What we know:
The protein is α+β, with helices and mostly antiparallel strands. It has 4 helices and 11 strands.
Amino acid sequence: MRGSEANARALNDDDCSHLVDAAALILALDLNPNLLLDPSPTDALEEEPPRNVAGAPATADLGAAPNDKALPKADARAAARHESPTAAPPGPARLNVHAGARITLDNGALPRAALGVGPFVAVARGALAFEAQGTVYQEQFTVSGPRGGSAGAYVSLSTVSAHACLRALPLAIDVRTCLGGELGVARTSGVRLEQSEEATGLWTAATATLSARVLHERMVSPVVGVSFVRPLGAPTVYIERFGTVFEPAPVGVRGFLGLDVRFF
């Protein structure tokens, strides 16, 4: 008796808990002998979490990268938007206003090649532009005439033109093709004739222009180009008892050089 009481006193609470666990294990093996060979996923999930040195359950490292599965759906969508931002749609093209002056060399509208000068203004938005220009050309003397060409007429021309332009290629140089029309006044005055007269006639023409702005990204840019002019209505120089001494060419050519100033 005394030996049994001594052995019972020697058993503490931990030994009792171990005995209870052993009895539960024996009973489980008796009910399912394959338990140790094929543990269920539930048993694996119920394993005790790892413990640190102090014996407390190990906690997640605060400096570690967060798990995507642990993020709420709203936070995951926000993170995805932050990682791959969507490009904003391009805004509407700006409206630009240009103005300047051009020097033009005409060959075909007057009896001889003549220089002209005048202002121009342009309004552009994106690849489209509208240009208006005024030009006054030097007065020129007719090449042929009576008395061996010593008598004839002077011809002068002043025009106003308007063009619709399209940017041809998206290059560093702003290249534009333009189609438009021209309206002007041609004046003639006889020289060294028995009956010298002055006359004024209406000038109309269709034009096609190719122009290039070299430094179009800057506020001030040089502009060069060439135009082809097809007269639709033009006065001729006629001298009585001698005949016609001048009429414009069927197609004239003009080259121009100017300075383009962009205001905004």
